[in-house]
Amino acid sequence: MAWTETFHCDVCNKQRKENSEDWWLVWDEPVASATTERPVPAIKIMRWDLLMSHSAEARHLCGARCLHTLLDRWVSQRD
Ligand SMILES: [Zn+2]
After folding, report:
1. In a domain, 49, yes or no
2. What residue numbers bound the domain in which 38 lies?
3. How far does the centroid of ligand 1 lie from the alpha carbon of residue 23, in Å?
4. Number of domains observed in the structure of the chain
5. 78 alpha carbon to ligand 1 midpoint, in Å?
6. Which region holds residue 53: left if phi is over 0, alpha if psi is between -120 and 50, else beta?
7. What is the whole-number distance in angstroms between the Cα of residue 10 and the centre of ligand 1?
8. How far apart, in whole angstroms, are the C-alpha atoms of residue 29 and residue 39?
9. Residue 67 Cα, ligand 1 centroid: separation in angstroms?
10. 3-class DSSP state of 57
């Protein structure tokens, strides 16, 4: 029996179809800085990878448009 799983875009909530290769994964990955006490906010973007898509922290994006939307939100957020 095939094991099917469903992913939804974290921006538009679209469901991923099997073999949709234009999806993206995004992680928060703060970078330690020598000049500030707190890590500097940073994010990592990678092309869809089935194994990595299972990561609990990964955000799933259905394409370049939603990736841009997420980046727009990310760069305009303030602590
Ligand atoms: Zn989307």
Report:
1. yes
2. 24-76
3. 9
4. 1
5. 23
6. alpha
7. 7
8. 9
9. 8
10. coil
- 15 in any annotated domain: no
Q: What does the block give as tokens for 16?
A: 């991923």
Tokens of 25: 């994964």
User: What digits encode the pLDDT tens for the residues 58-70?
Assistant: 999 999 999 999 9
Instruction: Give the count of beta carbons closer than 10 Å to the beta carbon of residue 58.
Output: 19
Q: What is the pLDDT of residues 19-74, one digit of tens each?
A: 888 999 999 999 998 888 889 999 999 999 999 999 999 999 999 999 999 999 99
- Work out the number of other CB atoms within 10 angstroms of the CB of residue 24: 20
In a domain, 12, yes or no: no
CA of 33 to the centre of ligand 1 (A): 32
Residue 35 domain-assigned?
yes
Expressed in angstroms and rounded, the spacing between residue 60 Cα and the centre of ligand 1 is 8
The pTM score is 0.85
